[in-house]
Structures are given as C-alpha cells and as structure tokens.
Structures
1.
Amino acid sequence: MKKDKIAIIGTVGLPAKYGGFETLAEHLVTHLSDQYDFTVYCSQKKYKKEEQVKNYKGAKLKYIPLEANGVQSIPYDTISILHAVFTSDVLLILGVAGAWILPFVRLFSNKKIIISIDGIEWKRDKWSMLAKLYLWWAEKMAVRFSHIDISDNESIQDYTALRYETLSRVIEYGADHTLEVKPTLQDIEKYPFLKNDYAVKVCRIEPENNVHLVLEAFKMQQEINLVIVGNWNNSDYGKLLKETYMSTPNISLFDPIYNQREIDLIRGNATLYIHGHSAGGTNPSLVEAMYLALPVLAFKVSYNITTTENKAIYFSTSKELIQKLNTLSIAQKEVLKYEMKSIANRRYTWKVIAKQYELLIQEALVTKNKHSVHAEIKSLELSFLQEYQLAHLHNNFLFYENR
C-alpha cells in the first residue's frame, strides 16, 4: 500500500539534539513511520559530516546548508517548503519563519499545509522591532494560508480565535522520553549538589524566561540551592547573568546538556522545578518536569496556568518567588508532585501526541476549507432555521429530564 508523504519542516533536524520541535519530530517519526513516508529537513550546520545520514528511523533526511534559527530560518524554511512542494503530500511546518511563501504554495499547488505557530513568537523580547514586525505578519500568513494550524496551548488557541477567527487545534508535547535516574557515586562526584536538596531550572537564557528574576530571588535567600542549565554564552544577556551570579554560593550554572540521562539526572533528583517562561505556549521543559513528578513553581501567565491546570504554585516577582519558597511545606510539595505527574500521565505522553498528529494528517488530506470559530449554522438558509426552530427549539426539556 502506497504511503502518504509527509514533510516535517522547521526543525534543526534528526537525531534530535536541540529543542522541543526536534523532539516532536523524533517521536512522530518513531510512532508513525509505519503509516507515513516522512522527509525531515535538517540544518547541515548543526551536524558534522559523519553525523549526516540519509535515513533515520524510517524517515528520509534532507540537509539544507543554512542555520535553522535566527534570521537564516527564513531562507532555511523557504527552501525546505519549496523542495517539499515537489516531493510530499502534506507539509507539516513547525514555526512561522517561512510563512511568507504559503500564499504561493496554495495558489500553485494542491499540497496540504499544517502549521504550528510555536506560541506567540513575535512577542518575545529577544527579537528586534524589525524581526517582531516580520514574525507578526508571518503569523498572520501562517494561520490564513494553512489548511490546519496548531496551537500547543489552549491560551494560544484563544488568541488565534480572537485575532484570526479560525479554529486552531491544540496539540501539546510529550514528556515520557524522560528518565528516572538514580545518582551513582560517579554522578555525585561530578555534581556534588546531588547530595542535598535543590531547585532546578532548564531553559534558553532569554529575558522572557525571567532568568534574572529567578537568580535574584535565590541570591536574596541562600537557604535553598539552585541549579540552572542553559545557553549562557549565546547572548549579552546570558553572559552578563553568568558573570554576575557564577560566584553565588547556592547557585550552580551549567551550559546546555544534551545527553538525556545526564539532564534527567539533574532534573529528576531536584526537589523543586522553577519555570520562569512568560511567553510562548506549552513549554517542553515544563511538561518534562511534570512527568518527572517535580513540584512546580511557575511564572504567573495564562500559558503556564493552562499547562499545569492551575494546580502549580505561581509567582510574578522575585519577592513573591522568595515568599513562595519560604512558605512551601513538605506536605504541599507531595501534593504538587502528585498533581503534576497525574496531569503529565494523562496529557503529555508521546503515544497520545502522535495519535493526535495522525488524526490531524488524515483530516488535512481530505480537507478543503479551514474551520472558522463561527458556527456552521450561520451558513444555513433562514427558511430551514425557522422550520428547525418550530420543530425543536420550542422544546424546553433536556434529553435526560422527565417530561
């Protein structure tokens, strides 16, 4: 039986060794390669020549000689989209960088387009005003000219519904690739903080992730240790924070760790997870911490409240974070651990996520028009509605009520 051809566009590539979209691509290929013929576009800049393989877990890999992030993401995604138009049936595009070309894809081809807008990217502080304007416009193109658009969080779905009047589909991220790791003597020798209680934060070192706020709070109260893993050397913001706080006794700063066992060793043995993200949608590092049954203290924004179902503890300032840390009891931590793990087991497993993408691909293959937030009833003729009203709407009873 001939398989439908699916292109995954917008990631750094496979094998996954970078971030959330790459992990998503890895698990879609793992779970769905027996049903679909995948092509994944990869950045030649991020894989050494000996790492560049033609196939991975049943997917074809196509290398583009550009960076997948930053300003180069625009030509990177554009070239990937152009190639995929001639080779694939469905284009699964992760991010909006190449969305400028989608009107032409719709005009000159019958290819189906599914796009994940990746949170509200244009609001991120790291972008210049020019970049924000482009991303704001590209988001509009992405939603308007895709057959289906994906939000990774209900709060993002609300945003697209209000701004574009379209019905975005909510699909989050899986987290069950994380590992429960018991520290060995060698691990403790390498990371001495494992011997004591500590809080952990894993993120990109960017202003909207409120790394400065978290560091300030832990410097002001030094009773609790903090471990942060992130890309400190990628920006002036990160370099300044590293220089300012690297000598603080209760704070340990580490560069990015891509080894799954090692990062889960550090995360899984913490007693608290601090999530400072204030932009975006459902964040992979947050759902992974939840799956590892870590009590979560999260920055108070709708995305984080939605992801944790309003069952985490929330803060907005350094002083508020200190107050929450100082008043959090052992009993509260146990309740938080249970709540976070229960939510993750129910919502954030790759089997669930892959099934949702499978259904979305099937829908995209047969869909013609994008769904609006407005009810289909608005398109029905008035005479039919009047007849329906007379026959049914005058009935005041619900189906389970006695008459």
2.
Amino acid sequence: MTKRKQSPKALYIHIPFCTNKCYYCDFNSFVLNGQPVDAYLAALEREMERTVKLLPPERVDTVFVGGGTPTVLTPAQMSRFLASVKRHFPVSGDAEFTMEANPGTTEADKLQAMREGGVNRISFGVQSFDNRLLERIGRIHSVDDVYRSLELARAAGFANLSIDLMFGLPGQTPELLEGSVERALALDLPHYSLYGLKVEENTLFHTLYERNELPLPSEEDELAMYVLIMNRLKAAGRRQYEISNFARPGFESRHNITYWRNEPYYGLGAGAHGYAHGLRHVNIKGVQPFIDAAAGDLPRLTEEQIPDNEAMEDFMMVGLRMLDGVRNADFAAQFPDSTIDGVFGTVLRPLLDAGLLERVEETDGYGYRLTERGVPLGNEVFGAFIAVAES
C-alpha cells in the first residue's frame, strides 16, 4: 500500500469563532457573539462519527485545533469538544495535540480543561510586541495579555509553547520588528513562527490597499526583516526547519510536517480541508449551513480526486518549504515506479544552475533542498513546479 492510500495519522479540526475579525484575516472565521456554538459542536461530533465510519483511523499521532480562535470556547464547551475527539479518534499516548489560542482567551479553568482533554501544545497568535501596531492590524489583545497568557499556560503545565509573529505590516520597520523579535526570544520558547503579511481579498486591508491607503514596507525592507528574523533566531539556537518556522530540536511542529510531506490528514469543521486516499475535500464554510448539512450527511462543499501528476507537484512545492528538503525515497513511497529526477529533471536543472537548489546524496538515495540563497526566493522555486508533471 502506498502512503497515499493509508489512513491519515493527522487530524485537523476547525473552530470558526473569534472575538473579532482582524483586518488582514481571510480565514473562515466568524465573530462569536450570537453564534450557535453548542449546535456547531454537536454537528462537529456528527461529522466525526461519519468520518471514522467512512475512513477508519488506525492511530492518530497529531491533532491540530485551529480557527478562528478555539479558545473562545467556554471551559464546559472545551471539555465537551475534547471528549468527543477522544471518543471517536484513537489518539496515541505520545501524540502532539496542538490548539491555537489568542492572548487573553486562556484563563486557568480553560487551560485545565485543555490539559485534561489531551492538549499538550499551544500556539499563541501574538503577531507583534508593539501595542500601536497590534491596534493598527485589528488585534484586541495587548502585550501585557501575551505575558499573562504565557505565564498562565506554563503554570498549568504546558511546556510546548509557540508564538506567531508577523512582518511586513503597515507602518512596520526593520527596527520595530527587531524589537518584537528580541522580546519574543526573551521568553525562551521552544518554537516560533514568523509570517510575512499577505494582503488577501475580502479583508479590510485589501480594501485599503485598493485605495492606496495601506502604508506597506518596501520590498527591500520586507526582505531585510526576513533576513533579520533568520539570523536572530538561528543565533538564539532555534533551527529554521521550514521557511517560516524555527524550533529547538525536537519541538518542530509534527502536524505541519504532515502537510509539508504531502501526507494524508483528516479535516473536520466548517471550511476545513482534508486529504486522504488521493481525495481532497473542502467542507461547507458557513456556520449554520455546516450545521444543517451535518444533520444529514458529511458537510462537504467540494470533493475531487487529485491525479498523480498534481500530487507530485504538490509534493515538491510543499516539501521544499522544509529546509531538509525532499527525498526521493519519500517520493517513491507515494508514487511507486517514479523518481524525482524522472518527473522533474527539466525543472530541477535551471534551479540547480541558478544556485537556488542543491542535490543531497543520502545513504538510501538522494534528495533536493533550498540553498541559503534559495531560501529568501522560495516562492520562485515553488512556482517552477506548477503544471509541469505529465498526466
């Protein structure tokens, strides 16, 4: 059995509720006030029941609860939700169980419910350590909320903690970013994610951008910010294991690595994506439409069988995001009788000649990875693999 035909060992669950909508956010999220949260959790459990009947799991090694802001659930709702996950999925004893959180939404009783429900990793959406910048991007937490939330999480027994920071924000300079990075590193966390702003459609920032009212940093400044991030985090002992992610050894996000290796995963909840047995699905996005659909069947918006050539391209584009790169042995495990060189030789040669990729010889074969020069130009590399594999 090829890896593409195996049952997923990774589970993503979407909680679409937020306290407010940030100005840059195009995620499938809805302001909490007035939402039928309990009815949503009931619909989510019905989706769990049908999913495990359709695609029985052998073992789940990673769980990731994203949003939205999952920690807007009350402690009672949190306990109910996590109990339903355990009831339907065989989560392994050493699983990585991540929940996204916003600073200011994790009081002690909620953290206790999370611990008791199996959560052992929290990813906080901090974004900046500058209160004025937080206000400018529509965040409602303060820097003090960040410190308090991390203190409470540690007191509750959480050691595997991560924070997200953003760069390329309106009005942000390399000097402002450096201040945030320094304060973030002073927290001595095992994992950091740092993302460049993308102005997405259907956001307030896109509206402002179209009006020429969004004062974004220059491309030169944004590149300088990214280089600053890489240098500072590496100097602090956090290995860059993916384009945007840095960790102490052993604290890399196992769940996200599943995505970057193009391996199967369950996707549940409103707007969630899933990928298993070569079939990719997207769930219905609206809260009430999701609830209504789950009453009768799996709440699917779309389903499509991914042909091998497209899956091969995905393998390269997401796999090369990891600084260890892609291995031909892993490629062959997903696509028997095929090799990276055989499928992508004509794409690889110019990237190698340009010094953006390098070939790596290993005991069980070979692989490719970004060079130091290629890391800041990753999007150029990834785009080279679009629509080139033959059907």
3.
Amino acid sequence: MIHQTGIASAIGWVDFSSEHREKVKSVIDLLSTPGVVDELGIGVIRDSFSDSLFPGISTIQTRAKYFLTVPRIFRDYEKLSASKRRGKKLATYLNDHENLCMEAMVANHEDDPQGGIIGESFAEKQGEVQRKPSSVYWTGIRQFGLIRTPLSLQAFCRRFANPDQPLQDLVQGSDKTKGDDPDAAGQENTTINGPAYMDGWIESLTVDLSKEEAYFLSNQMQARVPMSLLGQILLDSEVQTQFLSLPSEWNFTTFADEAPFLGQLPESLRKIIAGARDFWQLMYGAHVRYNCLLQMQHGTSAVRGEFEAEWDEWLEDLQSFPWARWDTGLLWKLTKIHRRRVRDNTVHFVESWIEGLRSGDDTKSLDELVTRQERFNKKGRARLNPTAEESISEWVGIADLNYRLNVARTIISDIHVAIAQSEGDDA
C-alpha cells in the first residue's frame, strides 16, 4: 500500500497572542507528520476515540518524565520570594527553566543516548517552531491531577503573574471535593501535585523515571482515568507486561484484532476499541477513493491503477466486516462526551458513506460523497475543485489511525521499566 505524502506547503500567520501562537504550533506539529493531513474532516472523530482510549496523551509527547518536570518548575517558582517573583514573570521563568532542563538532559545522556529529549536538535532557524514540554503536556498534566486547575497554560501563567496570589487560589475543587487523586486525603488542597524531589534537581535530570516517580505517575493515571485503555493497562501488571510485549510494528487494527488481554477489559471499553478499529476500516476506503479521484484529475494512470487495485482489495476485505457489532451512534456519543464539535457536513458524509457501504451503493455514488466532503472541508483549497491545478504522484491524506497507541506505549514503557528495575534492585 502507498502511504506517503508528497505535498509541501508554506504556512504563515499573524502572531496576535500566545494562545493563538500555541494553537498554530499544534496545527504545524500535526501537519509535519506524514499521513495525518485530514482532507476528509474525520480527525475530530479520531480524537474522540483517542480521548477515550488514551486520555492525556498526545501524538507529540515523547517521554513520561515531562509530566513531572513541568509541575516541578511551577513549584520552584512558587517557593520564590514575592520580590523575586515580581522580578521575573512565570512565563519567562518557565521558558528559561525548560531550556535548562533540556540542556541538563542532553548533557546527562551524552554517554547514554536516549530518544525523546524535547529540543535536543533544536537550532534557531527563521520560521522554525519550537515546542516546549509545558505546552505539549499541559492537557495531560491537568487531566492526571498533576496541576489542579481548569485553566489553559497561558491563562494559568497570566493569573499567577500576581506574586501576592498563592497558587492555591487557582486550584480546581475545594476541601469538600478533593478529586480522585489517591494521595489527596493526605495533603492540603495544593495546586501542584507530585512526589518529593531535591533542590537543584535540574542538574542531575535525565529522561528516566525513578521508582517513586513511576509509582506516583502510574497511580495518578489509574485514579484519574481508570476506565480508559491507559488506566486499565496500568491497573493490571500482567496486562501491562503483555501490552509491552506486543510487536512494536503493530498498528491499532492489528492490536484490536489480536491483543490477547482484550477479553479481560470492561465491556464498555471493548466496545470503544472495536468501534475505533471498525471506524478506520470503513473510512480507509473513503481515503482510497479520494486518492483514486486525485489521480484521475491530477495524477497518472499508473498511480491511479495502484490505488484502484487497493480499492478492490479493500472491497474484498469489507465482505467480512462485522456489521452486527457496528454502531454509528457511538461516534456521536463519544464526540459529545469529549465536547468535540463535528460539522454537520461531516456527520452527513460519515453516515452516508457507511450506509452506502452497507447498502452496496455503486462506486460512482461513493465518489460523489467523497468529492462533496472534500470540497465542504477544504473549500477553496480543495484539490477536487474543477479549477484546481496540481501534480500529485503520492498518497494524500490520513494513511492510518493509531489513536495515540505508539506514544502511549512509550509512556507506559517508561513507567514499567522504572518499576521493574526497582523491584529487581530490591530483590
């Protein structure tokens, strides 16, 4: 199968605010990954499944350690005297200390190279976007109760710009609602939540978790998102071991079909896993047709022939699709739960595409659905517009849906390795 993108684009924007800048950075991070450009508008449904399976995880996270380093920087700032806080705003302090963390990690792994150090290869280049761990991990930090606040990162930093306002004033909840943190009953209702650490911690910082850090982070995830796939894997050490033993090349479809422990999971979660797997099997066909249409208008007969052959193969596989368990309503239930807005044209496209497949509609009718959806979704930038002129020789659009599986595997592995090593040391 052909799953590459060969389209290069230039993006520019007017930088009005830090919040606007962060949103643009997130879009650029996604667009920089091959095979994720969402030409048919299904990304919001994909993200709803991902939020159910691996909440707090994002595709641009790298290592579990950052869930703890960012809160520590905030806590260090909280310890500063009011005069020192007046002399340096939190946003500036955070930026400076994230750079120090990057430098320390690189230096401390010089003889032990590790992947996933954010900013390791960063070099100042005009137009390059620099991502900081605080931005990449903020949603997960809040979701796992590591910083208890409902605020965005930018709003949190602005609100805390007043050095006379304690962090406790930004806490989420009250003494009567301490949340689901396993250790909340033993603490005051502080905003920053984390295991103990030593002063000067940045100097010896590595990407590896200590035993205490791994247990703490695992417990927070289990407590805050217990019914997710992430929480269930961490709750059961045997399931965790089986999950990390699965072949690394497995995509989500193979995982959903063959992972040996799925039968042990709660039924509600099994339905979501099956729904995510089946959703992509159905929508992959739409992306194959989209690329067939692109080749008809902008490509070559040879490449079109490859995609048409893939379409025939996909149709053959569809003969065994598990229609008895399919529920289109699950898609809209999950988007509502996770407060993700789906455009009306996307709802119509997805429902019409699935019903067309179930009813055995001809290819021409299905092509019309795909063409109309791409034009709705991309408007003047639609490649299937009659006036569009472009040369396309490779796959365009989403190539696979893995629902954050690979990143979650890295995060869980970091926790598992630290705990396994500590148990070995204690033996």
